[in-house]
Amino acid sequence: MLILVSPSCGGKDYVTGKLLETGRFSKVMSTTTRPIREKEVDGVDYWFVTKEQFETMIANGELFEYEQFMGKFYGKRHSDLDSVMATGNIPVSIMEPKGAKKVSELLKQQGKSVTTLFLQCSIDIVNERFSERFSKDIVKHEDDPEKIVEYYAGRLASSFINEPSWVDFHEWDLIAPTMTDPSQTKDYLTKLEMYLKGEKNSGSLKTAEKEDYIAIDSRFELPYKARVKELLGNAASGLRDGALGPDDLINYLKHGLMNDQNTIKNRNSRLNQGINYEI
Question: Are 100 and 170 in contact (CB under 8 A)?
Answer without folding.
Answer: yes
